[in-house]
Amino acid sequence: MESQQDAPVTDRPAPAGATDAVLDEPVASALSGPHAHLARRVGRAASYQRAVATFSAVPLDPTGRDWADLATLLGPGRFADLFSLPVTPPADWEPVFTMPGFQMLGDVAALADAPADPAVEELSADDAPAMRALAEETKPGPFWERTHETGRYVGVRDDAGRLVAMAGERLRLSGWTEVSAVCTAPDARGRGLAERLVCDVAARIIERGDRPFLHVAATNTGAIRLYERLGFTVRAEVVFHGYRVPR
To answer: What pairs with residue 77 in β-bridges?
Structure first.
């Protein structure tokens, strides 16, 4: 990881409502806020609808009842992606993966004034199969049949009309929207497409009155350098982790 740079000092205020406390529990904050229409719940446990995302949440002080409710919500043997939630499930929940990462915040002054890029196209539900195919090829993170419903997604096509790069909005909280699914097909890399797409997504988030943030794996040093160059700074180290619900 490159050394963290000090956030630029600007006289431009952050968007109204962009206090960062909600970022400590981003999935729970999204599912109880702007993404409530995409949520399913049992008790205090919550998860996205299955075709949208696998992210799930329990309170920061989970009880045995909360874990039982999450198991009921997801189903025996199902995958529980706890994202960056700093809690550990009971011992009979089988670990599936653990991955260190960073939560990064976008600087409003650095990102707000990105001009419209004529090569960047807003994507729709009709593009969902192409978006998922690109995500499967490039592995930017989980992307399911209805992930595109989490927010605005944009992309760039090649001369043949094939989608070769995309980025979009995933978790949406009060005052904040996550930049996600940033990916470029191998044969289209080296042209700055990821930078252009991130700038477009972030600028429109700010234009709407939110502040952009994102998550990145600690091992993805190339992406971290790009985000730092664009004005993102590390807010917190996080650990992404997922488990198998007991059968």
So the answer is: none
DSSP assignment letter at 161:
S
Number of Cβ atoms within 10 Å of the Cβ of 176: 27
Q: Which amino acid is at 172?
A: R
Cα 4-238-135 angle, rounded to 5 deg: 95
Q: Within 13 Å, how many C-alpha atoms sit on residue 48's CB side?
A: 29
CA distance 112 to 100: 29
* Burial degree of 36 (CB within 10 A; 0-12, 13-18, 19+): exposed
pLDDT at position 65? 98
CA angle 214/219/220 to nearest 5° reads 55
8 Å CB contact between 70 and 47: yes
pLDDT of residue 12: 41
Strands 176-184 and 211-217: parallel
Q: What percent of the chain has pLDDT over 90?
A: 90
Nearest CA-CA partner of 170 in 221, 126, 216, 137: 216
Cα distance between residue 179 and residue 76, in whole Å: 32
Helix (H) or strand (E) segment spanning residue 198:
helix 193-208
